[in-house]
Amino acid sequence: MPIYVIIPNMESKARVYFATARSGKWRYDDSMPGKLERLLNQAHLSSYFDKDEWVAVKTHFGSPGAYRVVRPVFLRTVVNALKAINAKPFITDTVRIQGIDYLEVANANGINHLSVGAPVVLADGLYGRDSILIKAGDLLNEVAVASVIHDVTAMVVCSHVKGHINAGYAGAIKNVAMGGISSSHRHYGWKCGRGAMHTIGEGAMEWDGNQCEHCLQCVEVCPLEIIGFVEEKIVWNSDKCWRCGRCQRVCPASAINFPGDDERFMRSMAESAKAVLGTFSPSKVLYINFLTEIQPECDCMPTADVPMVQDIGILLSYDIVAIERASIDLILKEKHLPSSAAEGLEGDVFKSIHAKPYEFQLIEAERLGLGSSRYELITLS
Length: 381
Fold this sequence. Notes:
Layout: E1 14-20, H1 32-42, E2 54-58, H2 72-84, E3 88-93, H3 99-108, H4 113-116, E4 120-122, E5 131-137, E6 141-146, H5 147-151, E7 154-160, E8 162-164, E9 168-170, H6 172-177, H7 195-199, E10 206-207, H8 217-221, E11 227-230, E12 233-236, H9 246-250, E13 256-257, H10 262-277, E14 285-291, E15 313-317, H11 320-332, H12 349-354, H13 359-367, E16 375-379
Parallel strand pairs: 1-16, 2-3, 2-7, 3-4, 7-14
Antiparallel strand pairs: 1-15, 5-6, 8-9, 10-13, 11-12, 14-15
Helix pairs in contact: 1-2, 10-13
């Protein structure tokens, strides 16, 4: 399949449409679902998506205990807008925990056919191994793009903006780069899955027995149940491990480490995003960022912390770099909320908590031709 790259026009600014979370009038049109409907009308969907075309609505299903995902009411609003132009939408994500369990999590978080008005499917199958190898650049070489996302011709990326253990900031790029590929490949394992981004090929767990408190949180958080202790020494299955990093994140004693390079990780995400988006023709992907319940952790963690800043609103664009830049700019203007992880912190809320150079994912995505950081913010009246 040919690789398509959208080359931004550097003389013009990408359009990013914005609707505030504030509601100034007691009417449906001023509610967030109503505003999302109006944003979708401005997106001119019929100019980009065809009658009877299958359209993947890519989102994140969450985890047991992590419920601050894109709300079903918003997903249904997107589905209804696509149905209005006679497209055929479905809701999808790649396997984050065991496939059957992940569908149960989606249902518990209110994401099912009845609530969203469209089928809910796993993009890489029940076992998370249905994928196609795609060239991905110098860092990753090849990545296992989920077969459904690889084969579908159009996509709407609905991203819940939040913090992230490795990415620092997680929005549309992370949703595409890590959520568009499988955790592991059927034959090549984690080295062609999202685990390759986490560790950039190093992949060996480091465990400090002197630091370990044997609290077993790493055992409890592992989505594959492949960590255990024998005679107070850690045992893990390296071949099956997805390198998700959850064990490292929850360890209170910092006894677990997966070595990696933050800047290379950010650049590898851009490479993966390019590989995923390269399976689509130009202008067949729409991005919607939800700046609501902006918590410090990813939705794949087994809990959801309180928001760090106030709800801001919804952004929509056909440019992945522009919508990310606009999202960050809006968040950084907000005051940190009391009684949150951001209370008392100064400056950039994401860097204050995770200390990751997240801007490199945008810089590299722009360098690879995925979009432009120059944008015009068009606020819904």
